[in-house]
């Protein structure tokens, strides 16, 4: 692994919920951030089909405290067909009624985290679509740093959920950033070790993401209804790993840890 391609962001927020997939109805968070949530934050700051992220490690600055509350959710989802029908004839579309007491709404409990802070380190790699002379890793590393230092993002990153907004800041060195923040926060932020057991790694295989995708040009679209992408859609396949916190750091790089898919976990 080329350590020169490692970027580091410090992220924090008031609330976070990294939902355990085994909880079917009411959300229960993992005690710390998952690699898939870390990837989502980085992609919110910068992403192009010519590159992708491999989460290297997650350092826990503030573990946060458990908080439970009830919130309004909806029992229906908007399908693509419904969106198309609304575009053609808005007057014929029945909206989803949300909110307290609405027919399509419901109330569910959530066990979340409050006041968390993490340091995310990730390796930046290019896909086969990076075939132009300027599509080198250095280009994307510079763009990520420039956007992060300026506080720019494509959409506001979230801590496990879109409504739990995350603040972020560029860091030059993950270990130095952890030591600095521990000093600033005092004795309560000391290093800790913990075996967290099986944790969700990601729902999209990093080997599939490594291929990237591209939109087809008009002349390449033979049929009117043909999808405008050149690769088959990537199907979600939940994968897990054994998460261990050592000196407030969780190793997440797929080259160093064992990732279990739902098939391999059952064998």
What key phrases describe this protein's structure?
globular, alpha+beta, 267 residues, ten-stranded mixed β-sheet, 6 helices
Describe the structure.
This protein has 267 residues and is an alpha+beta fold. It has one domain: Alpha-Beta Plaits, CATH 3.30.70.2660. 20% of the residues lie in helices and 31% in strands. The protein has six helices and ten strands, in the order ββαββαβαβαβαβββα. Strands 1, 2, 3, 4, 5, 6, 7, 8, 9 and 10 form a ten-stranded mixed β-sheet that branches. A hairpin with a 2-residue loop joins β8 and β9. The protein is globular, with a radius of gyration of 21 Å. The mean pLDDT is 87.
SSE map:
Elements: E1 6-16, E2 27-28, H1 35-45, E3 51-62, E4 65-74, H2 80-88, E5 105-126, H3 137-150, E6 167-170, H4 174-185, E7 194-202, H5 206-209, E8 239-246, E9 249-251, E10 259-261, H6 262-265
Parallel strand pairs: 2-5
Antiparallel strand pairs: 1-5, 1-6, 3-5, 3-9, 4-5, 7-8, 8-9, 8-10
